[in-house]
Amino acid sequence: MSDVLQFRDVRLSFAGVKAIDGVDFAVGADELFAIIGPNGAGKTSIFNVISGVYRPQQGRVLLGDADITGARPDRVARLGVARTFQNVELFRQLTVVENLMLGRHHHIRYGTLAAIAWAGRARREELASRARVEEIVDFLELAQWRRLPVGLLPYGVQKRVELGRALAMEPKLLLLDEPVAGMNLEETEDMARYILDIRDELSIPMILVEHDMGLVMDLADRVLVLDFGVPVACGAPKDVQANPDVIRAYLGESGPKVGETP
What we know:
Blueprint: E1 3-14, E2 17-28, E3 32-36, H1 43-50, E4 58-63, E5 66-67, H2 73-79, E6 81-83, H3 96-102, H4 112-117, H5 121-139, H6 155-168, E7 173-177, H7 185-201, E8 206-209, H8 213-219, E9 222-227, E10 230-235, H9 237-242, H10 244-251
Parallel strand pairs: 3-8, 3-9, 6-7, 7-8
Antiparallel strand pairs: 1-2, 1-4, 4-5, 9-10
């Protein structure tokens, strides 16, 4: 299985505080790779390094054969990395379809004059993008809200729209930053189903950061555990759950396994 992403011995510090301390992992094609750890463990910092927000002091990040270490976020996006955010980042006054269309911006190849005339290449690309967006509307079951401003929608549906906008980019790698944060049980179960469908039907590899341990252990193919920027364990969910270093990082010397009810 070829690796879509390689995160090689990355180190990142802020004013002497180590956010990422020698983290090394790879994500395979079609893999759902999860990163977990207590608050301040460095999970979001890893996402920011991958997406070009942070430049590490050491290490390399490879997307396929492309070195994206310290690359600008717009270049990383054009190369195929899409991301959702912990907090909903949508244009509340725009409709569902309009928000999804924003995910198509880096596929646009026509200029301002062609857009005004809406002819030739501009018309073809616009229609192609709209067709792709309608596929995502169906995939994420958003049809009943497609013409409504997202600011009027329930929180769980807004999170689904943000996921759809990332899918509209047609990514090679999808970064999911706490996709079920703030959701109720029904919304969480729906989002879990969509995440599995993305892996199984669309074959898009994903990196998942999430505090819901039950969700992580049910969905992930492999799990990386961090503690204050240091990798503690990496492997299959059942192996990570039983790892004594992971148990200590989360619960102290004794206690139930990660993901189990105390």
